[in-house]
């Protein structure tokens, strides 16, 4: 989806057309347009529901609000019962959104169980709202030029089609080198913002205004304990909702607990074998094939294994980066793109996947450390500014952050970072007083959601790789009912004896195979990039990095994982950011 809004009526409709031509992969089935005196918007439809009797744009019954929306509203039937039926009987689920706004304002979006990016025109006030779902599954970017707003589902068409002297946002670079992610509203492009998850940005008279209608982290434990049966029922219903479509929905199967639980539920809900897809690797330490096969055979799925080889990583890495225009710290997005390639080749248009379980149910190893009482934690004023608590630094190692800046950035880039460091903006939507009421694990969960989940796992790893192949990702663990249960579950039910997601594992005892149930956390990783790269390509990337003006010429010489004990290969970050700069024509 893309478009231009000019409240003064002076808009160039050709910009929307140009952006749309670069977004066909996101919606190849139909094209819808919204044209008035002040807006020109286009939506490429990936048809999932209402294939015969649905259309966009949709209006509320009073005709004040008109909207075009990417995504899904899984509880559309219940919402229609609440707000009244559409007099035009529009069969597409997202047609309920303008009526929600008409009756409840922007807060009405908080009633949606789904995933969406919506463009909502208020005809009465000549105003525009750009809105995203609770967790930011569906992306939306925008830039403001005077009183005109340009918006797009992807950053690349926006930058390439809107004339400007675009520059690199050095604050976004510092976020990535420090956090391993870029956190909305920041992007890599100065002057381009991402609509934050759970928010709508209003444009009209005056400055743009960000309106938050929902936030993750409203824990309300201390009531009746959440039972294993309730967790099972919640995930089953959320999975059922996300399997409902007019087209076939498949499932990703990594071999870990989260995807396995969803595949088990999917197999029980469907009256046909579920289509499952997995990536396998030649290297034993990377491969999870035996767990994937065990689960697929147990549920009788129609299973496809996509083999990712070292040569795939080296040959496809640059294409992947130039498509998503997002920095990288590992190579696994190549495997994710290959996985989506295979799904599309089978004619499948959507998949359910396990993202969200680790963040909501405390599955990462860091939560186990938080569960142990530690007498002293170093305090920093920067932590307090970023997170609201001086002794909480999330995953930031301050010595390594400074070392990365010195090792990777040119003197000019380091000078530009000064005053734009990642910690100068609050990274979570909570005040200091609200943060004080949170446990260490709850605060980490909130940070994980807004930094890791929304910024990366649902973004460049999820939406970008899937939509490159016209595939929609659906996430049962992020359903409203499951989120509500997670927020009600006590910390000590989530982490037991240093094991995260304990309550979920208990709920699926005897259902998920024991070999999977008791596995340790295995992150989705792929081959090292440098070891398989030919000298000529590596030299060309070195030249690209040097030409960026951002990174030191020698920053690619040594692997920081061996020389500096880093978890990630930040050489990939330098290479990928230089590629993005080249692709978008950015300069420092």
Descriptive tags:
588 residues; alpha+beta; six-stranded antiparallel sheet; 24 helices; 15% strand
Strand content: 5-15%
* Uncertain regions spanning at least 5 consecutive residues: none
Our Rg estimate from Cα atoms comes to 23 Å
Determine the number of helices (DSSP H or I, runs of at least 4 residues). Answer: 24
Can you list the strand order of the major beta sheet? 2-3-1-9-8-10
Number of strands: 17
Oligomer designation: single chain
Global geometry: globular
Terminus-to-terminus distance? 29 Å
Overall pLDDT, averaged?
95
Percent helix, as a range, is: 25-40%
Instruction: Report the biggest beta sheet as strand number plus sense, adding barrel if it closes.
Output: 6 strands, antiparallel
What class would the helix/strand composition place it in?
alpha+beta
What does the model show?
The protein has 588 residues and is α+β, with helices and mostly antiparallel strands. It is built from 24 helices and 17 strands. The strands form 3 sheets. The protein has a 6-stranded antiparallel sheet, covered by helices on one side. Strands 4-5-6-7-11-12 form a 6-stranded antiparallel sheet. The longest helix is centred in the last third of the chain and has 28 residues, at 440-467. The mean pLDDT is 95.
In short:
With 588 residues, the chain is α+β, with helices and mostly antiparallel strands.
Write the layout of secondary structure elements.
Elements: E1 2-5, H1 13-21, E2 30-35, E3 39-45, E4 58-59, E5 65-73, H2 76-83, H3 97-104, E6 114-122, E7 127-132, E8 141-145, E9 148-152, H4 155-161, H5 170-179, E10 193-194, E11 199-203, E12 209-212, H6 228-243, E13 249-252, H7 257-269, E14 275-281, H8 289-299, E15 302-308, H9 310-324, H10 332-345, E16 350-352, H11 357-360, H12 365-371, H13 381-387, H14 398-408, H15 411-417, H16 432-436, H17 440-467, E17 472-474, H18 480-488, H19 491-494, H20 502-507, H21 514-517, H22 535-547, H23 560-563, H24 570-584
Parallel strand pairs: 13-14, 13-16, 14-15, 16-17
Antiparallel strand pairs: 1-3, 1-9, 2-3, 4-5, 5-6, 6-7, 7-11, 8-9, 8-10, 11-12
Helix pairs in contact: 1-4, 6-7, 6-18, 7-8, 9-10, 10-17, 22-24
């Amino acid at each position: 989806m893309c478009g231009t809004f000019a409240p003064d009526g002076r808009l160039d409709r050709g910009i929307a057309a140009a952006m749309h031509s670069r977004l066909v992969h996101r919606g190849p089935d139909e094209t819808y347009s919204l044209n008035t005196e002040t807006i020109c918007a286009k939506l490429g439809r990936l048809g999932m529901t209402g294939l015969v009797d649905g259309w966009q744009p949709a209006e509320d019954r009073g005709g004040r609000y008109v909207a075009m929306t990417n995504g899904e509203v899984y509880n559309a039937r219940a919402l229609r019962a609440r707000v009244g039926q559409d007099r035009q009987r529009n069969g597409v689920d997202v047609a309920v959104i303008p009526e929600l706004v008409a009756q409840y304002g922007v807060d009405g979006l908080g009633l949606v169980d789904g995933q969406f990016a919506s463009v909502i025109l208020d005809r009465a006030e000549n105003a525009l709202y750009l809105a995203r779902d609770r967790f930011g599954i569906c992306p939306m970017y925008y830039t403001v030029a005077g009183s005109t707003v340009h918006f797009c589902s992807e950053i690349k068409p926006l930058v390439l089609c809107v004339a400007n002297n675009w520059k690199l946002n050095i604050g976004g670079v510092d976020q990535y080198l420090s956090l391993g992610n870029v956190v909305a509203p920041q992007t890599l492009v100065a002057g381009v913002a991402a609509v934050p998850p759970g928010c709508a940005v209003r444009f009209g008279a005056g400055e743009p205004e960000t309106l938050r209608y929902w936030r993750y982290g409203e824990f309300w434990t201390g009531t009746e304990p959440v039972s294993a049966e309730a967790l099972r029922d919640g995930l089953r219903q959320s999975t059922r909702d996300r399997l409902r479509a007019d087209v076939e929905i498949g499932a990703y199967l990594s071999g870990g607990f989260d995807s396995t639980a969803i595949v088990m539920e999917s197999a029980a809900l469907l009256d046909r074998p579920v289509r499952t897809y997995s990536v396998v690797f030649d290297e034993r330490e990377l491969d999870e094939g035996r767990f994937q096969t065990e689960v697929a055979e147990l549920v009788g799925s129609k299973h496809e294994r996509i083999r990712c080889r070292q040569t795939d990583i080296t040959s496809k890495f640059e294409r992947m980066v130039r498509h998503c225009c997002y920095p990288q710290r590992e190579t696994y997005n190549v495997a994710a793109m290959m996985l989506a390639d295979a799904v599309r080749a089978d004619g499948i248009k959507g998949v359910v996947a396990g993202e969200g379980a680790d963040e909501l149910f405390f599955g990462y190893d860091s939560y186990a450390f938080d569960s142990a009482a530690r007498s002293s934690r170093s305090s920093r004023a920067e932590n307090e500014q970023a997170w609201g608590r001086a002794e909480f630094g999330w995953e930031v190692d301050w010595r390594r952050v400074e070392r990365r800046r010195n090792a990777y950035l040119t003197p000019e880039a380091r000078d530009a970072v000064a005053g734009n460091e990642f910690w100068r903006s609050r990274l979570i939507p909570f005040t200091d007083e609200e943060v004080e009421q949170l446990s260490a694990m709850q605060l980490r969960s909130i940070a994980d959601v807004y930094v890791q989940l929304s910024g990366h796992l649902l973004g460049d790893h999820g939406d970008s790789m899937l939509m490159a192949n016209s595939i929609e990702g659906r996430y049962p663990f992020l359903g409203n009912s499951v989120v509500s249960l997670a927020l009600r579950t006590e910390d000590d039910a989530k982490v037991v004896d240093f094991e995260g997601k304990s309550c979920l594992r208990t709920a699926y005892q005897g259902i998920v195979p024991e070999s999977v149930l008791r596995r340790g956390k295995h992150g989705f990783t792929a081959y090292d990039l440098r070891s398989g790269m030919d000298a000529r390509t590596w030299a060309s990337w070195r030249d690209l990095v040097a030409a960026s003006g951002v990174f030191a010429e020698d920053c690619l010489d040594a692997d920081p994982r061996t020389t500096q004990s880093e978890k990630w290969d930040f050489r990939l970050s330098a290479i990928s950011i230089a590629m993005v700069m080249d692709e978008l024509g950015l300069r420092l």
